[in-house]
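Inputs:
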Amino acid sequence: MDLLKLFIAALLVNNIVLMRFLALCSYVGMTAEPGPALGIGWAVTFVMVLAGVVTWFLNVFVLQPLGLTFLSTLIFILVIASLVQLVEIYLRKSIPSLYHVMGIYLPLITTNCAILGLTFINQREGFTLIQSIVNSIGVAWGYTLAMLLLANLRQRIKHSNVPKFLDGYPIVFILTAILAVAFMGFTGMAK
Amino acid sequence: MKQLWKDFVNGIISENAVLKLMIGLCPVLAISTTVVNGVGMGLATTFVLLGSNLTIALIRNIVPKEIRIPVFIIVIATFVTITDLSMAAYFPALHKTLGIFIPLIVVNCIIMGRAEAFASRNTPVRAIADGLGMGIGFILTLILLSGARELLGNGTIFGASLPFKGFEPALIMILPPGAFFAIGIMIAIFNNLFKLKRDGGHKHGSA
Amino acid sequence: MNVLRLGFILMLVSAISAGALSYVFFQTKPIIEQRKAEDTKRVLLEVLPSAKSFKELNSSEFKPLDDSVMFITNIYLGIGSQDNPVGVAIKGVTVGYGGSIVILIGISNDNKITGIEIIEHKETPGLGSKIAEKSFTGMFVSKTLNDPLTIKDDLTAIAGATKSSQAVAKLVKKIADYVLKNREAWR
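Outputs:
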């Protein structure tokens, strides 16, 4: 039950993009079409869960016992960068079909701040391993949900008459503002 | 000297990271609820940018090409952690409000972008000029955005209330939707201003 | 061979970085700890001004609160200028509208609330966030532990933030009952 609440909170209430303002670069940069938005969503989910697990073990069994938590930033970003490399090599060699779907988005993920942000959130909340995994999936799907919502909205405004003043990125942010208003309705839902 | 000035000004308008290149958006939107937060975040990012630009320009000829990126990441993460610890020691309140956005400076695309595109190819002095310009452009953007949000959403400026009465703040501006709304309008204004300026420049024949 | 060379350079860079960070860490550590201690003391004095110093109880020395969402995390005994006990400050956690709310409440020996501070909260800015303002926390001051301490009776909720106000009031009431029942144990 608590895990379900945690999941809903990560997915909707504290949506990583619309409420926590992370991963905005890819959110505005990769949502011109719904297809790539879904591909990058899967890639992020994959790396997020892996990163969540690996950093949990590092944090609980290395950093905290040795009093080295001040090195977290350095170590977590290196873990994510190497994970992305490893996943890319593995997928290309072993599962070409999956690589075809999300492989091309992997290199972009290292600087996706949602992943590093997630590892910090897991660490600061003091989650258990299971909680970290549930939170990682919730955050990743929340990210994918926001990406898909925006990508589809952008499809629809393509042929509509946007005021010239707001054409381009500005209208994307105005749409996001409206999405954020809708997501604020979830506040207080899971606690 | 002229070259340095050009490197410096470049980051403020023509390549303004947030408004023009659309990078480094996350911290800008997340912490721009008050001007104090905005300035704090801007200064922290500028410090990291200067430190990493200088270091990377200094070691640019020693580091082998193949491991360039991991070395950059380590350099940037080191400066970020130094900033994080120093802020915890000397500005605990600000450190607490900025929260995870301080360690997240590591993945601020502005810093990695400048390291890769500029600092690794130019002299340390030019790298500093570039870092300063980019940093000031970032701080100015943050001041404008957080100023607008604090004023409209909270009815205060730098934490002080307005000298006159009768202004009812629109709470939504300091809530998440207000951040997206404000940056959208700001980018629109910036784009339109910039177009005018460029046209004017062509008429006078200046480059 | 090249891989070894590259690996060595990476190791070297990491070592320099770790060294620099350890240096900064040990330089800033005492300052950060001192600030934290000063901060704790300042807030404690705010809620229990009659005390000169405070003695924190170990978590094994007090009973937990019997509740599923509300907890007591710290208990500080206030000591006056003549080494006499003057009251107690209790830090408790509850769940508000947006997330956890941490409060510190000071209670004098004659069972009066001497002050309340909201230490941490994630309530909506501009609405629920007003629980941290004096206009709200001030309502609790000089009430006694036997007062009803409920939103309908002797307290008023913040307009538009009933849930946040309720959460704080309930925690205060819970702690008040707890102190009435258990305080003899710490004297």
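Remarks. The mean pLDDT of chain C is 88. The radius of gyration of chain C is 22 Å.
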